[in-house]
Amino acid sequence: MKTIVLACGGAGIKTAIRLNEMLASNPAQRQILERDVYYIAADTDIHALQMFDSFIKRQSELNGRQPYYRCLSLADNYDKLSELTRKREMHKVKDKNGNPIQGKERLQEHWWYRNDIPFEAPNVMPLKMGSSRCAPAAYLLTWDMLKQVEKIVQDILHEMHIRRDDAGDYGLMDNIQLIAIAGLAGGTGRGCWNLLALKIKEYFHSHECALKSLGVFFDVTAYPNVIAEIPGCAYQLKVNTLTGFSELSCWTRPGQNENVGFMYRLPDLEKPENACRDVLMTGIDPNGCYNVNALVPVNRALIICGDNSAAVRLYKDHHYHEMAASGICAMLSSSELASRLSNRIAPFQSFGTVTFEVENAKIGAYLEKLACQLIAQFLMGEAGMRFPARWRISSGRFPCG
User: Could you tell me the pTM of the whole model?
Assistant: First the structure.
């Protein structure tokens, strides 16, 4: 199974790095990493993309197997969102001849306007340092980059031909899957994942390639340390998560009823009046030319969230990233024993829980590493660490067992 891992925003990139580390550390899985895994890392934060690039290269130098990956800098060279809106002339009402701008009503269907002035997120700057939990800013930047995404997908297909044909695999376009990873509570991942996933699936579908897709998302409860460090951001994180759930429900609902038809077209920012230049066209048309199950961002969605009970709790967002990476690694590795839906009737439309059975040794290794990290942080007196009562030091002795 060939897999395109779409890592969106900080949460997606950190999870992809950990996933690559797990695959590279196991000699039996390195062939999977080199032949079957292809990464697309997308972020507004240039430093996050540089971190991803350096980690993949360093891990490749250690094990001699390098996966194919591409980095997509969504912010490009913009410091402010207004630079993009002015460049695309989204603020203009009339052309140089005094005639109304054609296609502006199409832009207003997909972007916020007030008195013919587009929303420009003036407090989010510089964009190349991140979208500051402003999902709309990342959405517009991604919208403008969709043509480049198509070129990246073409490059991935070309690389698949090279890597798979050398191994005598002639069923190149069979059994390809897309795994999109993003945080719903943040800004960049929340704002870009859906457009990127849609564009990738649209391209594959136009070439008669079946591309199944899975979304792995982190909700607001996966960021306890962020909320503790920046209490004022809790409201933003919760709103982003709730709107993210709403968006997911809209995309997943049509899959339950194939008789429901819809069209979703995104105009070109440069020529919005020209429907032939639309950068995105998905859904199911009245003539049934588009398959609704093939052209939605994700066919299944998995939500990674924290447990509010006192018995089990993770204290850092990177622990959730590692947990998600472990699950994806189990899906991709040959050591996977079985995967199944643990509840056939999803509690929230198509959202459900997926259980992956993996070798006990791998689970033990993960828990051992996590325990070592927690103990080290405790002994070093890291500020803000909270432990269950049974872990606390009593009478000067560290609890055992």
Answer: 0.80
